[in-house]
Design goal:
Blueprint (H helix, E strand, L loop, with lengths): L1 H20 L3 E8 L9 E7 L10 H8 L9 H15 L5 E4 L12 H10 L4 E21 L4 E20 L4 E11 L7 H17 L5
Parallel strand pairs: 2-3, 2-4
Antiparallel strand pairs: 1-6, 4-5, 5-6
Helix pairs in contact: 3-5
Amino acid sequence: MRLRRSLSILTFAIFGITSLTGCATSNLTSFTKQKVAEPYVNVVVVFVETNQEITQFNEEAYNTIVRKKFNNLSNIDFRKNLENAFVKNMGQTSTLVTGAGSLFEAGDDIDYASFIGGLKKAGAEAVLVVNMNKSWSTTTERIVKNDALNTYDVVKDANPNASYLCYLIDLNQIKPVWMGKSTGSGVWMVGYNTLNNNLAKNVNSKLNKEGFVY
């Protein structure tokens, strides 16, 4: 009887862990502000974390929303993960996708003229600003075997969740031509990696469908 109960608990634990790895979700609501004549062939991804929204991309907006945020030292690890997710998921076609981290040094104070100039020097036609405007965690429980005591323990895990605002900004018009809002939930095992990959896949799909990228 005890063996059957132990096997039952272990089966539940394995099922629970397997289920967690597959339950990452993401949705994206998007709006096309202006159609483009042909898809962009060079896009730079910029990550920021702020609660402000972008309606235009002039110097004032840049200084308020992007400056000292897109290349700060505190977010460098997460930023690299997100930029790599977009490069991997969007850069497999005729559209070249580059993370801003490869164009600007971390920690440098980049003024507006230098920022726009750096993007255009890299051949960028548009910049995709990804703003994580909210993040939080939800708790789930799983059962883990304690081999030392031959018991099963309940472990609580914090699963990452985030809300993103995305803006595709034409560098000639200096304003958004497309924008989207995404909310995603991840799992403790992979942290934000799955969240960022799902976001990049969804954004790429929408941009491709609307004719903004190849």
